[in-house]
Specification:
The protein is of the alpha+beta class and 564 residues long. The chain has 15 helices and 20 strands. Strands 1-14-12-13-11-10-8-9 form an eight-stranded mixed β-sheet, sandwiched between helices. The protein has a six-stranded antiparallel β-sheet with strand order 3-4-5-6-2-7, with helices on one face. A six-stranded antiparallel β-sheet has the order 16-17-18-19-15-20, with helices on one face. It is elongated, with a radius of gyration of 34 Å.
Length: 564
């Protein structure tokens, strides 16, 4: 169906699986616990492109006059302002809370900001707006993104930063989600749920025939009661007496199961001849593994499948109270090998009360909207019974081959899509620099704080870069070293433990230079390894491409026949 006619969010989904190991997005008792030791100190770099700047950004002195009050107005504490002595307009504002780099391009009315904070993360948005206002830009003429980078250990504000950092969950965790299948659900509730499930897909229940594979006759088979309410004929197939005590490790196990199999086949054939084909199958929790093996073997034979089961397939249900009995799920899923092509779906559903839980594996054929109906069914059962339901897994059948003569009703070429906006962006973007954020970690132990400046100076020397560096050590346990030169800038941040980040910018878009810079820096300390490496073009016009990728700006192949 066309996308605009799809009313249900799940209509185009074929498979789904819940990840039980995923992080739970809810509030726990530990969320409000005040940390006693500082185990981590992340920082965040905000890359901000300010375009259409109307303020005077023609000189570093003028940019300093603009951004210093903008930062101080947000409660930031300026330690020092470092300005480039070259023709390039570049200013670094070193703060107690981090640093801000502003590179201005007056002719293009563009300012490239780097905002790196190791504390006061809640001020990012206000800082961004304040800087944009200072240079005469606004939110509509800017773009930004964030990179997680090095922070700073030993700040007096680390406890507050730890408590305020990241998203905070306000919804309490549902204790029902913690329940295992150790406490079986009462038969009245579970049978009600099973009945509602079977009733949803068996079209003619009153004349339908159902089979329930049970444990020994001496044990209760609760699934019979679930089917008796709705099906005209319900045949319990009890575990044969010769295998009831378990046969897996007996010498004549195969013979015993074969004898049981033949006995059950005769009973099923008699049932079908008198009442019609089997519309529904249930594997009761009391049924042992050997019984599931026999049932699977019977329905897997083509002749018996055709004589016992409808061509469209039965509905198969297997309720379970023991989560370790995965073979019950496999029994239900095996029907996808018999009825292979979509629509043929399997689902694992879990229903919880405050004290108990039950899992139900389900197989259904012929429902083109199985996921939609399953989702609606779970909501309906929740409303009617008061339980909490969850879909753990949905698996669809194989896509059916449409045939060699099949032709799509519509075929879309690139020209059918509106590429005007992407083409405008393609021509408008103007990359003017190369930004890299290189993060390094010491293999063992800490980096020496006294060596950080020497490492950057050594790198400049090895690459014949004429730059004077300045070191700042007045915040936390780490340090920051700033180096500016005519072709770019490098700011090295050490967190006081074992993590270093290099914020490297060059006006020349040269990836080989960046690699060489990183390699030379690592050579200053053999214990350092690069653990993260982010690089991106900087520029205006919503830049996303490097200059070499844009080339001569010929009309790209994906935009042919588009009129600008």
């Amino acid at each position: 169906a066309p996308m605009e006619k799809i009313d249900q969010n799940f209509e185009i989904v074929h498979d789904y699986k819940n990840n039980p190991s995923a992080q739970r997005h809810c509030k726990t008792d530990d969320d409000d616990k005040i940390p006693e030791t500082q185990d981590a100190s992340p920082g965040i770099v905000l890359i901000l492109e300010a375009e259409d700047a109307s303020s005077d950004i023609s000189h570093s002195d003028k940019v300093e006059v603009l951004i210093r009050p903008a930062l101080e107005s947000q409660g930031l504490h300026v330690v020092s302002m470092i300005k480039s002595d070259e023709k390039e307009v570049s200013v670094v504002a070193m703060l107690h809370e981090g640093y801000v780099v502003a590179r201005a391009f007056p002719e293009s009315r563009y300012v490239a900001f780097d905002i790196h904070l190791w504390t006061s993360f809640d001020k990012f948005e206000s800082i961004k707006k304040s800087l944009l206002t200072a240079v005469g830009s606004d939110m509509s003429s800017s773009s930004n993104f964030r990179i997680v980078a090095t922070g700073m250990f030993g700040l007096t504000s680390w406890v507050d930063d730890s408590m305020s950092r990241g998203p905070k969950f306000t919804q309490e965790c549902d204790d029902a989600a913690k329940l295992s299948l150790e406490i079986p659900m009462d038969s009245t509730t579970s049978n009600d749920i099973i009945g509602k499930i079977s009733r949803s897909w068996v079209s003619n229940i009153e004349s339908g025939t159902s089979v329930v594979f049970c444990g020994p006759k001496t044990e209760r088979c609760a699934s019979i009661e679930a089917f008796e309410t709705d099906f005209k004929t319900v045949m319990p197939v009890y575990t044969c007496s010769n295998i009831a005590a378990g046969v897996e490790y007996l010498e004549d196990s195969a013979n015993l199961k074969f004898a049981c199999e033949q006995e059950i086949i005769v009973a099923l054939e008699t049932l079908v001849s008198e009442n019609g084909k089997i519309a529904a199958i249930a594997l009761d929790p009391s049924a042992p593994f050997a019984m599931a093996q026999i049932a699977h073997k019977i329905v897997s034979r083509r002749k018996l499948t055709e004589s016992l089961l409808p061509a469209t397939g039965p509905i198969v249900i297997a309720p379970m109270h023991d989560a370790t009995e995965n073979w019950r799920r496999m029994f239900v899923d095996s029907f996808r090998q018999i009825y292979q092509f979509s629509p043929a779906d399997v689902a694992n559903l879990v229903f919880n009360t405050t004290e108990s839980t039950i899992e139900i594996s389900l197989f259904v054929t012929g429902d083109e909207d199985f996921i939609v109906h399953t989702n609606d069914l779970v909501s309906y059962i929740e409303k009617k019974t008061g339980v909490v339901g969850e879909i753990k897994l949905i698996g669809g059948g194989r896509f059916d081959w449409q045939g060699d003569d099949w032709k799509p009703s519509q075929f879309f070429l690139p020209g059918a899509y509106d590429q005007k906006a992407p083409l405008e962006q393609w021509y408008s973007q103007q990359p003017v620099g190369h930004q890299s954020v290189i993060q390094l970690q010491a293999k063992d132990g800490q980096v020496s704080k006294e060596n950080v400046k020497e490492m950057l100076d050594g790198t400049f020397g090895a690459m014949s870069i004429n730059s004077v560096t300045r070191e700042f050590t007045e915040f936390g346990e780490g340090s920051a070293v700033v180096g500016l030169w005519s072709e770019g800038s490098a700011i090295v941040l050490y967190d006081g433990r074992s993590h270093i980040s290099i914020n490297l910018f060059t006006y020349e878009q040269d990836k080989e230079f960046v690699t060489k810079f990183s390699d030379n820096f690592k050579e200053m300390d053999d214990e350092l390894n690069v653990i993260l490496f982010d690089e991106m073009p900087r520029g205006y016009g919503r830049v996303v491409n490097w200059s070499k990728d844009i080339g001569s700006r010929e009309l790209p192949h994906w935009s042919l026949k588009i009129e600008m």
